[in-house]
Amino acid sequence: MERLYIFLLLAAGSALPCLATNPKTSLLYPYGETQGDSENPVADDGNSPEISIQKPFSFYGKKYNSLFVNNNGVISFGKYISAYTPNAFPLKDGIPFVAPFWSDVNNKVSGNIFWRQSEDPVLLSRFAVDLSRYHPEISFIPTWMFVATWYKVGYFGSASKKVNTFQAILATDEEISFIMLNYADIQWTTGTGNGGDIHTGLGGLPAQAGFDSGDQKNYYNIPGSRTPGILNIKETTNVGEQGRWVFQVDTTVTGVPTAKSDCLFK
């Protein structure tokens, strides 16, 4: 019951005051070539190769030993995702995945998609400290992390310079698992294949954010998903810090409440 309580607490809208990110401190964890990251191929609807991970990641009661980083804003387990249309959760295909910003990304237009796994004590400590700031009652020190960053990526059919930068982090101690979603800059929501405007990247069917266990029962949609409001996701949070969402995802939970706060979509 303790883990169930913690999960619900993290997934629900936080009662913490909504704080703007310190402009002197990047919301994103370190990424890019200087960090030794690998990079996805430049390809529309592309993906990484299957990545064997150093520690098993528990996601809704199942442990996974590999994953894919997909260009269209998704980390998936068991199979890559080439779909560019953000269908509503829960999905029927049974593929579990984390979606920081599922939409029609095209890194042939612009941008880079970086990823790496890490056991760096400095990075692991940063995650533990961040979590303790939001929930001091939780004692969690990860032994492994995976950092995926979509940096200044454009959208399919773009005739503009609009780009998005966002990040997904997986962290585990091999028993308890968390995901952290960070949003640095969101300028577009929709590629032209989903009805978006060629010049603005808006309209049509906008992006989806959240996660899906693949069992058609356990999933979470960040409020504003698949609506124009997702453009403002960098101003929302469930931990009191704008642009950041954190969830515990190791234990099966049916339904996730979304209490309203100043940082949640209404």
Automatic annotation (TrEMBL):
InterPro entries: Epithelial_Barrier/Signaling (IPR051495), NIDO_dom (IPR003886)
Signal peptide: 1-20
Any Gene Ontology biological process: cell-matrix adhesion
Domain NIDO intervals: 100-252
Recorded superkingdom: Eukaryota
Keywords: Signal
SMART domains linked: NIDO
Name the UniProt record assigns to this protein: Alpha-tectorin-like
Lineage start: Eukaryota, Metazoa, Chordata, Craniata, Vertebrata
